[in-house]
Amino acid sequence: MGNTLGPSVSASAGGKVILLGEHAVVYGSGAIAVGLDQGAHAEVRETPVAELVLGERRYVLGPEPDPAPAARAFAALLESLGTVGIAAEARLEIPAGAGLGASAALGVALARAVRELLRRSTGRVPAIAPAALAWENVFHGNASGVDTAAAEYGGCLAFRRGTEPRALHPGRPLELVVALVEPGASTRHMVEGVAARRAAERAGIDSLLDSIGALVERAGACIALGDNAQLGQLMSENHERLVALGVSTPRLDQACRWALEAGALGAKLTGAGGGGCAVALVEADRRAAVLEAWTGRALRCWEKRSE
Length: 307
Ligand code: PMV
What we know:
Layout: E1 9-20, E2 30-46, E3 51-54, E4 57-60, H1 69-81, E5 86-92, H2 102-122, H3 128-140, H4 146-153, E6 156-160, E7 166-168, E8 174-182, H5 187-200, H6 202-225, H7 228-245, H8 250-261, E9 266-270, E10 276-282, H9 287-295, E11 300-306
Helix pairs in contact: 1-2, 1-3, 2-3, 2-4, 5-6, 6-7, 8-9
(3R)-3-hydroxy-3-methyl-5-(phosphonooxy)pentanoic acid binds at residues 18, 22-23, 25-26, 99, 101, 140, 143-144, 146-147, 187, 191, 271-272.
C-alpha cells in the first residue's frame, strides 16, 4: 500500500455454495446457501488517495474515474459506507468466477474492515449489507443478494430477495463436497441469458423458475427434519431444472453423475453455471468415495460440514 497512513485493520469473509435456488432467486423465489470457511481477506488503512490492490492489480481512485469494474465497485462500496480515503489490499482464497461467491466475499471482507476502521476513528458503524451489495452489483448487474448475505452471515441460510436472511438449523449435519469442474462464466452474462430466454418464452421459463422455488420450499423442510436423503434428491432435481434453463454444461452434468455413481445423496451445479463448480451432498461414510471420484479426475475440491 503505497500512499498509506495510519494503522491497518483486517477482516475476512467466506464464500458460499448455493444448495438450491440459483437464478430463480433473482425473480423472487427462495434460495438456500451454505457459507464456506474459505473466502477473502482484506486489510485497510486511511489514506489521502483511495486505492485497491487486488492480487497483482492496483486501482487508484484518483480524480479521473477508473472504468475497471473493481475500481467502480470499490468506489461504490466506499460511497455506501460514507467514506472516501481508504487504501485496501485484498486477496482471495477461492477461485473467482466459479460460483463460490468470491466477489461477495471480497465485498463483505472489505466492508467489514472499513467499518471497523471507521468505528475506531469516528465511532460511526455503517451497515455492511448495502455496501457489499453496491460492490456486488457492479460485477453482477442484477444481484439478488444471496451471495453477500451468505458471506456476511455464514452457516446455512434461507434467503429471499428483499427480506432478512434466515438461519436454518440442520436436523442432521450437512456433509458437502464441492468441486471446481471447469472455468466459470460471468454471472452477469448467465443472469442476462436467463432474462433473454424469459423474454422470448415467458410462460415456459416462469414455470421452470416456479418449480425451482417449490423445490427450495421442500428442501427447507428437509433440512429442518434432517431428511438428507430427500434433500439430496431435491438438489439433483434442481440440477435437472437448471439444465432445462440452459445454464449447465456437459462437464457439470458429468461431474454430477460421477458424484452420484460414487454414492452422493444428490449433486448439482452451484452458482450461475456456464461452468464453475458442482456441489454434492453426502453421507459421512461416502464422503471419501465422492471426494476420490472428483479428485481422482483432477478436480480441485473443498469440503464443508454445516451443523
Ligand atoms: O455469483 P454466483 O455464480 O454464485 O451466482 C449467484 C446466484 C445467481 O442466482 C445466479 C445470481 C444472483 O444474484 O442470485
